[in-house]
Amino acid sequence: MDSTIRLVSDRSHYDRRDRGQLADILRPYWKDAPFSEEQRRAMYGLSAQDFQLVDNLAQADIAVLPMTWNYYLGRRELSRAVHFVGAARRAARPILSYVSGDEGVTVPTGFDDVYVVRASGFRSRKRPRQMAHAVFFEDPLDRYPDLESCDRPLGAENRPMIGFCGQASLNLMKVGVDVVRGCCRNIQYHLGLRLAEPQPLYPPAFLRARAMDSLAKSPLVATHFIARARYRGGAKDDETRERTSREFYQNIAETDYTLCVRGGGNFSKRFYETLAMGRIPAFVDTDCFLPFEPDLPWDDYIVRVRAKEIPSLPRRIADHFAGLTKAGLADQKRKCRELWDEWLSFGNYHRRVARSILETQ
Fold it and tell me: Is the domain of 113 the same as that of 147?
């Protein structure tokens, strides 16, 4: 039986200058030189049997809106999206679309039958056909293979080691500046001057610092924190970017758990990077939605607390750690890596998204 999923789209919408707004699932196929289609598929972890682009709706299993909703709304070209969706509806084909960016944009009303994949957003406001977008990046164990067998620092043999490397600050002046900036952005959205959706005024860097402070003061856990005042330590050159990137992944590798808190949008890239490194996310849930939830039993893999439960985070991690033998902890880490590889890497993620859409038809 042919398991290849046939996709149809409209390349006339695509401008290579806006490749960042191309629907993710089309990236291996609408390619730029010098890569061949076979090379690009391999780069994205896909085989020739996974997806096939076809020329018309009659041949297709799924219609893919070519560009993100950010593109159509920002360029005032919503009519092109409406035309594409209308044709797919008439052909009775399910429609897959994407929202990009940290904050994301609001899909206009009238598209409730369209599947929307987005990393940003809030679980309490989630639309029925909204799907959580995994964050994609180069496999860190391909980039830093020596970190796969990295040992945790000495001195905490009987306690869980939790790490964090990134931007975090309890500086109240910075908090005030971030709150004012957030107010301005939200006001611009409500005045129709900005497309990016409004966000809570509580600064993510302060939320991370609060969680780190709670963990650092607890005798239940050992911590390995690198707090930066700016993103990637303000790196502006390739050498510094490479150094800070290695420091980031080494911090994860040297710990059992990594603190994962939202960034500019309501999701955490670090969450996915922690899984890819084969470590356990200690996830501060700020009304996030995760990929394939509730079908994927996330709480079998991670430690999760709500933002208002941050004071309980040390105890939750300690209890999780106490419930595992040394072999059990190693097995849990291995399962986290397998979860990322089998569910959240680019190729496997999109195969699962496409199949889940077809199964609901």
Answer: no
